[in-house]
Amino acid sequence: MTHCHTILEALRQRGYRITPQREMIIQAVSHSPVHITAEEVAEQLRVHTQAISIATVYRTLDMLWQEGFALRNDLGEGRIVYSTVLHGPHIHLVCRKCNKVIDADVEILNSLSQDLQSIYNFQSDLDHFSIFGVCSDCQNKGRSK
Q1: How far apart (Å, rounded) are the C-alpha atoms in residues 14 and 131?
Q2: What's the predicted TM-score (pTM) here?
Q3: Which domains does the chain show, CATH number per domain?
């Protein structure tokens, strides 16, 4: 069973009605090799049908996130991107100056996650998020001026 079919079946078992629009949205996100915005999902699907609204795309992506099947991340400047959990844990380092996105290893967050649990009794979800700062290229440009 493919990843999108696994998600669809799990949603059915949780009592969700799987409309053709929901199925197309889930397929678009599941088959995307990169993070994708709601607008990009809608644009892809409009090639096949006009019977899908951006509101439906947002509601479906939010439902996938709430149910734990999708990851959602803010890459700055209103760029909210989605991927399925199959994409795996990762961190985005986003440059505030040039908007470059660098993927970082999530292993560096293990101690933070443990500290949050032991100090605050808070179970963190650090599998997919962004850290904003300034990349080395932009730092070097600032030094050369």
Answers
A1: 33
A2: 0.73
A3: 1-86 (1.10.10.10), 89-145 (3.30.1490.190)
